[in-house]
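Notes from hallway chat w/ T.B., transcribed later so I don't forget. T.B. wanted the structure written out for a chain they're using in a teaching module, and asked if we could keep both sequence and structure tokens in one place. Agreed to drop them here.
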Amino acid sequence: MKYTFRKYEFPNAEAANNAVAALGIDEDGNPTHRHTIAMLGHIVTTAATYDEGEELTPAVLADNYSVDVLWRDGVASDWDANLVWPDPVGVHSFGNSEANAEYTATLYTLFPDRVPVVDNDINE
């Protein structure tokens, strides 16, 4: 069985929930698909700042609603319009190291300018 890890952004929770529902749910609201879905929501793009426990500036949240999917046996192509490629894997990943490695390899193939540069001259 092949797993593929992908990340998506939707304009809001309703659009994300509709996309997930379209994958298949039964009359009780249980999924009929075999994919693993992580509804991340509006992720923090800028952390809040604090001084001695007092909030100085609140966290800034992303405008879009994030969803991660661990696809089992194929990726739903109708999700492609919402596909995003945070580097390296954003704020969440699944425990499947093979799927995480495939995600990173695909990211660097699509965006070779994002491959990290290793400085081997750290003692100079």
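Follow-up for T.B.: The chain has a mean pLDDT of 90. Might be a good example for the class.
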